[in-house]
Design a protein that fits this description.
Blueprint: E1 3-5, E2 7-10, H1 28-41, E3 45-48, E4 50-51, E5 57-58, H2 61-74, E6 79-82, E7 104-108, E8 112-113, E9 118-119, H3 123-136, E10 139-144, H4 147-158, E11 167-172, H5 182-195, E12 200-205, H6 210-220, E13 223-226, H7 243-253, E14 259-261, H8 264-270
Parallel strand pairs: 1-14, 2-3, 2-13, 3-6, 6-7, 7-10, 10-11, 11-12, 12-13
Antiparallel strand pairs: 4-5, 8-9
Helix pairs in contact: 1-2, 1-7, 4-5
């Protein structure tokens, strides 16, 4: 039988903006509609950022609440994952939406250089977010932008702040961080098996690397992430029409790798989440 793959759709992110591609959903209603289309195409997990009216990144709990409610209404069982990322948001606000109790939330386990800034995640901040997620029964998705973050996650398991069946996302292709090279990808997967043997994993390729990394994940037995947050382009020649367009590309490639898109219920089982009410 074919092996299920959990397809994550990162619908909007902090960037890009509508000027880069009119398909990027910004308002809550646009985000809900775009997520529903991606869900119908085969996505089982939605990675959520929200935007202020001027399209700047926001931590406003009321915006997260509106998007979450819409997804749960229109996408039965779909996994809702909130971003606690730092682009355009102060550390004190980055976990402000967690009391809404999404199924999952992102957790970067260290700091890293980005092209024009430092993505700061000091140890006390990381542990504080991990503790809050644990108290609220929110499963973290460990975001690994640099190698040390993988070992930091293993330390959090030893400290009892993460469960051994962690879900890890490798982010490849951001300048100054992990490069999108197959040798690096293979090394990360082998190291994960050594230091977090019970973990599940996904890899995200940024910008022009998105589709290549999707194919590596399908071939290696991992899960996939796609969406307009990571790339506004379907390929090198044209803009993506929608998040569903990018999800469908993965679905269409599943057969050649002996894979199939996981249903929402299967995705919850694979990631160790309770089934939706």
């Amino acid at each position: 039988m074919s092996q299920p793959v959990v397809i994550t759709v990162a619908i909007t992110g902090a960037l890009p903006r509508k000027k880069d591609n009119p398909a990027v959903p910004v308002t809550p209603s646009e985000q809900i509609e775009s997520t529903h289309e991606a869900f119908e195409a085969g996505a089982a997990l939605a990675h959520i950022h929200v935007r202020a009216p001027d399209e700047s990144p926001s931590s406003a709990p009321e915006l997260f609440a509106e998007v979450q409610e819409g997804i749960r209404r229109h996408c039965p069982g779909m996994i809702v994952q909130f971003s606690t990322g730092g682009r355009g948001r102060e550390q004190a606000a980055r976990g402000a939406m967690l009391p809404l109790r999404p199924d999952m939330a992102s957790l970067a386990t260290g700091s890293v250089n980005f092209p024009a800034s430092i993505y700061e995640n000091p140890p006390d901040f990381v542990e504080g977010l991990a503790r809050t997620m644990q108290e609220l029964r929110i499963k973290p998705e460990i975001e690994v932008f640099d190698l040390a973050m993988l070992y930091n996650a293993a330390q959090l398991v030893k400290k009892g702040l993460l469960e051994p069946n962690a879900h890890v996302q490798f982010v490849l292709g951001i300048p100054n961080a992990l490069p999108a090279r197959r040798s690096v990808f293979d090394f990360l997967i082998s190291e994960l098996a050594e230091v977090l043997p019970q973990a599940t994993w996904v890899a995200a390729g940024v910008a022009r690397h998105q589709w290549q990394v999707n194919q590596w994940c399908l071939a290696a037995g991992g899960h996939c992430r796609t969406g307009l947050e990571d790339s506004v382009r379907y390929d090198e020649t044209r803009l993506a029409r929608s998040n569903a367009d990018l999800v469908q590309r993965i679905v269409d490639a599943c057969d050649e790798h002996g894979r199939r898109p996981a249903t929402a219920a299967e995705a919850r089982q694979l990631l160790g989440l309770p089934q939706a009410a």
